Amino acid sequence: MRRADWSGVHELVARLAAAPEAANVFGAHGHEWLLEPPLTAAELAAVEAQLRVELPGEYRSFLVEVGRGGAGPGYGLFSLRRVDGRWRWEGDGAQLTCLETLAEPFPHVEAFNPFDELPAQPYVKDYDSLEEFSAADDAWWKLYNSDPPVAGLLYLAHGGCSSWETLVVSGPARGQMWADDTGADGGLQPLHDDEGQPLGFARWYLRWLDGAAAQLSSGLHP
């Protein structure tokens, strides 16, 4: 199980929050540079028992060493909370995570777009009557608006403009961060670093933290 070195993260987030231009970092008005309290080991065990899956090591170490949500990429990390006796993530887009299927494998390892599998959009000229066209058009839009496959995919942050960043929990790409741009017809694709290597949770989060520090002051480092 992979772990990450989260030492200094709380201190750096606090220093960035105190910077004069902190509010100018993209998404800061959403998370306000606040980190929610970490989970206890018992709470993490309860989460994983409910989900019937062990979360990837870098993220689970973040949950118990740093926080259960808050300051992070985009408008901040969705917060993991216990509501009515059940654990769930909360935030704009957190509902896209299907808690019941997180243990099922996310089957993809390369970028894909579920809309590519749609049939051609109906045109009125191809139908004998307006009623036939309307029925076909309604059926097409129902397919278009259907949810993309989300088994094994944990939505962690809203990146703006109908884009979300997710963590693969189960399947061959387990531990990788992926972007979901289906809200803008862009499909889903793995996130990579500047060398083209897949990003795991730790490098994804720390790269954001480094970028925010560089924006506010080149002298701040975790």
From TrEMBL:
InterPro entries: Knr4/Smi1-like_dom (IPR018958), Knr4/Smi1-like_sf (IPR037883). Residues 38-207 form the Knr4/Smi1-like domain. This is SMI1/KNR4 family protein.
